[in-house]
């Protein structure tokens, strides 16, 4: 038995912040943002909507999609660097809101690689036979930690949530292989004190190298080759980084998920948000081999090779 995704949902705030809006707020241009990052617009949550509200909405949809109720959940893992409070965790807040009475709950901090860390943690509990259904949420309200006077970072990020219910699936489906990693020596390149600080060039170099390497590594571990890949879902930080990963896997453009132009970098939420987008677009189909790969502050990274389906 493998662990796989048995239900999925997302929440995106309604308010759209376009590059043209940012031009009025700081010294930047639509042209610079589009050519350097691929981003055209991003979603921004209103003051009344915090991280746990977005996580809750996405989780409700994932449970419905799985045909399960909150009481079926054994564990809730929320990957976020923008929790409502240092504690209680967002996971505990949504445990209460969902009514997931028997679920254990915790948040994990692995920045933009958080969703990969969350899924792989859930996999261990499920494949170890300890838990059956684990809710994994990637959610961020980055707009509350962005310095709106720093054009180096303010143009990049967006808010949103994606959630999956993971559970046992057949041997041929679900997670086939994974890789997780961290390099704390790079912590200084991307961190939050009051606001997000980023050494863009350093993170860029790391990301290009790591996204390619981790994608290749998970394929090898799964006993698959580049030709077996049906779809690549990279963390949506910057189209130039994503393109480098795609080229390393020698995939045609239509085999890579691209949502960065619509939602910007939503950190831990970007991969599940993209999966929902591609399911809606009909680009992910039953039995497809999918590679997901993320990187982020820490520095952290993670990749999964999976076969879609229950
Ligand atoms: O999820 C993980 C989080 N982080 C990332 O994935 C980010 C990784 N890094 C990147 O995506 C890129 O490094 C950036 C998009 C952040 C920057 O692109 P770049 O090609 O590395 O640009 P740069 O940092 O080399 O800056 C080029 C120029 C600089 O001007 P000077 O020093 O050459 O005069 C910047 O001041 O662009 C300037 N610049 C801007 N200009 C207009 C920086 N931000 C902006 C802006 N608008 N928003």
UniProtKB/TrEMBL annotation:
Keywords: Acyltransferase, Cytoplasm, Fatty acid biosynthesis, Fatty acid metabolism, Lipid biosynthesis, Lipid metabolism, Multifunctional enzyme, Transferase. Residues 236-240 are annotated as: ACP-binding. The active site is at residues 112, 235, 265. Its EC number is 2.3.1.180. Pfam families: ACP_syn_III (PF08545), ACP_syn_III_C (PF08541). Residues 106-184 form the Beta-ketoacyl-[acyl-carrier-protein] synthase III N-terminal domain. Residues 219-308 form the Beta-ketoacyl-[acyl-carrier-protein] synthase III C-terminal domain. It is found in: Cytoplasm. It catalyses: malonyl-[ACP] + acetyl-CoA + H(+) = 3-oxobutanoyl-[ACP] + CO2 + CoA. InterPro entries: ACP_syn_III_C (IPR013747), ACP_syn_III_N (IPR013751), FabH (IPR004655), Thiolase-like (IPR016039). The keyword Lipid metabolism applies. GO terms for molecular function: beta-ketoacyl-acyl-carrier-protein synthase III activity. The keyword Acyltransferase applies. Pathway: Lipid metabolism; fatty acid biosynthesis. Catalyzes the condensation reaction of fatty acid synthesis by the addition to an acyl acceptor of two carbons from malonyl-ACP. Catalyzes the first condensation reaction which initiates fatty acid synthesis and may therefore play a role in governing the total rate of fatty acid production. Possesses both acetoacetyl-ACP synthase and acetyl transacylase activities. Its substrate specificity determines the biosynthesis of branched-chain and/or straight-chain of fatty acids. The last Arg residue of the ACP-binding site is essential for the weak association between ACP/AcpP and FabH. Homodimer. HAMAP family: FabH. Belongs to the thiolase-like superfamily. FabH family. NCBIfam families: fabH (TIGR00747), PRK09352.1 (NF006829). This is Beta-ketoacyl-[acyl-carrier-protein] synthase III. It comes from Bacillus songklensis. The gene is fabH.
């Amino acid at each position: 038995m493998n662990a796989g995704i048995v239900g999925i949902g997302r929440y995106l705030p309604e308010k759209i912040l376009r590059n043209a809006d940012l031009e009025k707020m700081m010294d930047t241009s639509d042209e610079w943002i589009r050519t350097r990052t691929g981003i055209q617009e991003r979603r921004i949550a209103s003051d009344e909507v915090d991280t746990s509200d977005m996580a809750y909405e996405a989780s409700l949809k994932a449970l419905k999609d799985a045909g399960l109720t909150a009481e079926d959940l054994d564990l809730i893992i929320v990957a976020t660097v923008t929790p409502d409070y240092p504690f209680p965790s967002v996971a505990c807040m949504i445990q209460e809101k969902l009514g997931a009475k028997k679920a254990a709950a915790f948040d994990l901090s692995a920045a933009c690689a958080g969703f990969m860390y969350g899924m792989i943690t859930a996999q261990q509990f499920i494949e170890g036979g300890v838990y059956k259904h684990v809710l994994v949420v990637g959610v961020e309200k980055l707009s509350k930690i962005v310095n709106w006077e720093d054009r180096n970072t303010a143009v990049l990020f967006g808010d949103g949530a994606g959630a999956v219910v993971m559970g046992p699936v057949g041997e041929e489906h679900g997670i086939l292989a994974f890789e997780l990693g961290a390099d704390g020596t790079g912590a200084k390149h991307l961190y939050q004190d009051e606001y997000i600080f980023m050494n863009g060039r350093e993170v860029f170099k790391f990301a290009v190298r790591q996204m390619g390497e981790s994608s290749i590594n998970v394929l090898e571990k799964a006993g698959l080759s580049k030709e077996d890949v049906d779809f690549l879902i990279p963390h949506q930080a910057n189209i130039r980084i994503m393109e480098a990963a795609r080229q390393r896997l020698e995939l045609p453009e239509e085999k890579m998920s691209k949502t960065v132009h619509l939602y910007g970098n939503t950190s831990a939420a970007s991969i599940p948000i993209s999966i929902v987008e591609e399911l809606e677009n009909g680009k992910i189909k039953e039995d497809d081999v999918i590679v997901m790969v993320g990187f982020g502050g820490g520095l952290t990274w993670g990749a999964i090779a999976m076969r879609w389906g229950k």
